[in-house]
Amino acid sequence: MASPFEAGGATRLLDGGIGTWLGSRDEALAAAPHLASLNSPELVANLHRAYVLAGAQALQANAWLALHLKEAEAERVVRAAADCLEDGIRDSQTPVAPFRLLSLAPGQGVPPAGRVALVDQLGRFDAVVLETLIDPWQLAWLAWLVEWSPVPVAATLVPDNRPDSWQPADFAIRAQRAGARAVGVNCGYEDATDRASRAVAEMRQAVPRLAVMARPAAFDPHIWLKEAKACIQAGAHWVGGCCGSGPEEIARLRAELTEPFEN
Fold it and tell me: What architecture does CATH give domain 12-256?
């Protein structure tokens, strides 16, 4: 099976935001967008389909807060998110199926001592991405996922410009030691919109053998587009969007890039 974390070749396109997009369509989903996979599966599948049509070559399942839930509910959410992902890909009728990613936020406190029910669903994906890390203690969740996941695991940092923030090079080195097969940046702060591309460059230098992913936040569509392009210039192997971005932004990024994407 091909890995989404091959470091060579042309830059490939990720999808954009999930939770903020769902919340903009249904206010009830704003606080718990992961529940849309259970309660509004057609809405979620249609979003995945729209991202495929926009040109995304990897899609993230809608299960971001699963590790914050109790074991049985977490497994149900991940299973439903995988079903929505499959439905969206099938409905898009794309000749080349995109990679299936399970994007998860680290849980609260320490990870489980062993295997939990949602592990049984991880084989339905091509990779797991533990995203939006902000502190080294959260790497315990990365080590736990690496131990139990049958597919490769990546880790992404929220880039920041404050002096006391977690530095991208240190994050990348620690994540590699914990078993990550790719690193990157995800989301960001409104006062640090240019930090994503700088972080990508620092990670590329720190762990040159790992693939680097970039999902800048889209507080402003024009600034996001500029920063997404800057992430590519800095060496990102995958680029997409986070909060505030949607299929329209991904389609625009694809249309404006002069260098062809890898199929």
Answer: Alpha-Beta Barrel (3.20)
